[in-house]
Amino acid sequence: MGSLNLTVNGNRPPPRPLDVMISGKTRGVETVDVERVREQIPGCRSAIYMNTGWSGPSPKGVVEAMKDRLEYESYEGPTSPPVYESGRVIQQEARAAVASLLNVSSHEVILTQCTTDGLNMALNGLSWSEGDEVITFGLEHSSVLVPAYRLQERGVRVKALPLQPGDSGEDILARVEEAITPRSRLLFFSHIEYTCGLRMPIEDLRALTKAHGVLMLVDGAQTAGHVALDLRALDVDFYSIPGQKWLLGPDGVGAFYVREDLISSLNPVRVSGHAAVSYDDRGGYESNANSINKFLLTTSSAPLALGLTRAVGFYRELGAEAVERRALALSKLLKKSLSEIPGVTLMSPTEDRRSCGLTSFRIRGVDSNDAVARLWDDHRIVVRYVRELSCVRAATHAFNTEDEVGRLAAAVRGLAQ
Ligand SMILES: Cc1ncc(COP(=O)(O)O)c(C=O)c1O
To answer: What does each C-alpha distance from 228 to 56, 143, 320 come to in angstroms?
Structure first.
């Protein structure tokens, strides 16, 4: 993949209006060279793509690497020694790329199918006792709520606390603190709420859960590739991410992090030979309890792992902070434009530290599902409907432009009339 030609420090063209909005000053701030980035993402040209919170369009380098690998495997024979050996290396490199992205060790990361896969490994891998409690929030994604609710069948009590897009960090913290009892074992929530983009007060929640000896499982579906992550600093216990959303990787691959000292406390739910260090033909085996490899099954896709590595590389060339700032700045611009349209209600937080590149809104008198359909049919704008808040959600990634934001706002103004 070619260099993205980031413009850093003095070496840059005149600042765009957005740079000024991002920081109030542009000197010393790394920015994204948007046109160069867009050249590498064909999906930017076929539509106004504002749905990376669901699945993002991949850069050419990601797609081509996967295509080449797929051909290589098929045409050279998947188990011929060079193909097989390079496939193993690709898997290891993908793990290393994710571990480095998250600032953790490769021994603490496993590739998964998607975010939900990793969440299940934690939830269903813990040993539960009758009366144990899981605390979560009623506004969560179904991949949080439904797997948590199913634990009720094992005697676990699930407390789904109320949560609103405009809640302050202090309110959220106070609610969790009140819900914690000596039976509370796990706090389970999304780092960024998918409905509205609310950034949860994760550092404070970690401090609180630690003080009470409560484990923390975090759904990072909306963070990886969107906001800078340092899991070592956050000191979370379990964290699951997708490849296909803000990271712009392929569908079908994600990653799950387990802090090293907790690996032995999780049992693999789906089991292969990797769950044993050794076994015999009379029922004996030695468990591979301390290795995250116990979660591996057997055959896995090297093209997908390679796609993920390339996607992580692309994102890191852009710069995590630069992407985060630009996603937020575009969202702020969108919020400002939408708030000037009579009949439009914003459903996302406006305070910077609680906000990100997700912007949710309703249009008075227009069903949000219809609005999503009309934005596509009439304007080729890709956004999504969010059932929980009956709203439209637009995701602004670093590759989106101010012009696209303006076109979405204009289209919404048209619908609002
Ligand atoms: C917060 C959250 N959790 C989980 C998911 C499901 O993600 P995946 O398809 O990677 O399992 C999504 C998808 O939008 C999400 O936003």
So the answer is: 18, 23, 5
Any bridge partners for residue 394, and if so which? Answer: 359
Residue 286 CA, ligand 1 centroid: distance in Å: 35
Contact 121, 292 (CB under 8 A): no
The first and second tokens of residue 45, run together, are: 């040209």
- Show the domains of the chain with their CATH numbers: 17-31+319-416 (3.90.1150.10), 66-315 (3.40.640.10)
**Alpha-carbon span 243 to 223, nearest angstrom:** 11
Per residue in 233-279, pLDDT (tens digit) is: 999 999 999 999 999 999 999 999 999 999 999 999 999 999 999 99
pLDDT in tens, 103-140: 999 999 999 999 999 999 999 999 999 999 999 999 99
Cα 71 to ligand 1 centre (Å): 30
- For residue 148, the CA-to-ligand 1 centroid distance in Å is 14
CA distance 321 to 391: 28
List, chain by chain if needed, residues with CB within 6 Å of any ligand 1 atom.
Answer: 54, 114-116, 141, 143, 190, 194, 219, 221-222, 242, 254
Could you tell me the pTM of the whole model?
0.93
